[in-house]
UniProtKB/TrEMBL annotation:
CDD domains: HTH_LacI, PBP1_LacI_sugar_binding-like. It comes from Qingshengfaniella alkalisoli. Residues 6-60 form the HTH lacI-type domain. InterPro entries: HTH_LacI, LacI/GalR-like_sensor, Lambda_DNA-bd_dom_sf, Peripla_BP_I. Keywords: DNA-binding, Plasmid, Transcription, Transcription regulation. It comes from the Bacteria. PROSITE patterns: HTH_LACI_2. This is LacI family transcriptional regulator.
């Protein structure tokens, strides 16, 4: 057992004030004169007093902590999201509890329960499956503040996210508008039932009256650069023609780009590539990547604002609100009109 730290009683004895006065002063109560508060705080610093956060949370019913569950911190955009959310929460006096589900639904449910047991005031969750949300919906039904970072408008759960369907539509429509008619799709989200991007890809084709070639759609079952490289290798092994390619994130797109560089496929002269997320690596690749922008700062700020608003709600939570932000397409050197 470590040595017990100083108590309120020790500060009271050191300053000559009562324990109640010391307690009120350390909570900045206006009932205590400023000079007295200053003297007591100085004594607390000298004695290295640390407040009992557990006791305080039992009184206030707040731990001043919020759980953040992401699918994979190896994804650069989610690492950026984690940093931005931690910064936003710290500005508002909240600590961040981190966890990753590794795209595993059972692990995600386990982390949700762990944060609930640790009395986190609320949760922000990037769910691995955008449709299988029953474990999160139960939290909401119990009046617990939770906000998703990927939104299903019909889930009955608050969400702030980029509109992935609209982003995929914009990426595909860009390729169609510059003359490409055979556009490959590399999308690793379908295994988990996350269909927003493939829906946007297909809708763009439908709106332009272009038939989709299913032989150039591929699910690499992962989201990494290596997965993108091997997805391109599989597409080439099928011996099918395509002049454009949309990858559902920039890591996959960079893997495709690496394959092209290694095998003498010129980008964009032989193949135009569009990614998704607009990560820094894509902008500074050998051939700068055209990509759909993920507005990390805006999503993070608005999601934090919403979850804190839910925490501060009196009685029942307000009706769920789903906000989907329209993304912008950033056009760079990896795309050009089809010759």
């Amino acid at each position: 057992m470590g040595k017990a730290g100083p108590r309120l009683k020790d500060i009271a004895e050191h300053t000559g004030f009562s324990v109640n006065t010391v307690s009120l002063a350390l909570r900045d109560s206006p009932r205590i004169p400023p000079e007295t508060r200053k003297k007591i705080r100085l004594a607390a610093d000298q004695l290295n007093y640390l407040p009992n956060q557990i006791a305080q949370s039992l009184v206030s019913r707040e731990t001043k902590s919020i759980g953040l569950i992401l699918t994979d911190l190896q994804n650069p955009v989610l690492t950026h999201v984690a940093q931005a959310i931690e910064t936003e929460l710290a500005k508002r006096g909240y600590a961040t509890l981190f966890a990753t589900s590794n795209n595993n639904l059972a692990e995600e449910a386990k982390m949700v329960e762990l944060f609930r047991q640790r009395r986190a005031d609320g949760m922000l969750i990037f769910p691995c499956s955008h449709r299988r949300l029953e474990h999160i919906k139960r939290l909401r039904d119990r009046n617990y503040p939770v906000v998703l970072l990927v939104g299903d408008p019909d889930a009955g759960i608050d969400a702030v996210s980029m509109d992935e369907r609209a982003g995929a539509y914009a990426a595909t429509r860009h390729l169609l508008d510059i003359g490409h008619r055979k556009i490959a799709l590399v999308d690793g989200a379908q295994t988990l039932g996350n269909t927003e991007k493939i829906e946007g890809y297909r809708q763009a084709h439908a709106d332009c009256g272009v038939e989709i070639d299913r032989s150039i759609e591929i699910d690499p079952t992962d989201h990494s650069v290596a997965a993108g490289y091997w997805a391109m290798a599989k597409l080439m092994a099928r011996n099918v023609r395509f002049s454009g390619l949309f990858a559902s994130n920039d890591s996959l797109a960079l893997g495709v780009l690496r394959y092209c560089t290694k095998h003498g496929i010129r980008v964009p002269e032989n193949l135009s590539i569009v990614g998704y997320d607009n990560i820094e690596f894509g902008e500074y690749a050998t051939t700068p990547l055209t990509s759909v922008d993920y507005d990390v700062e805006r999503v993070s700020s608005m999601a934090v604002e919403r979850v804190i608003g839910l925490i501060r709600s009196e009685d029942a939570l307000p009706a769920p609100n789903v906000l989907q932000i329209e993304p912008n397409l950033i056009v760079r050197q990896s795309t050009m009109p089809k010759a």
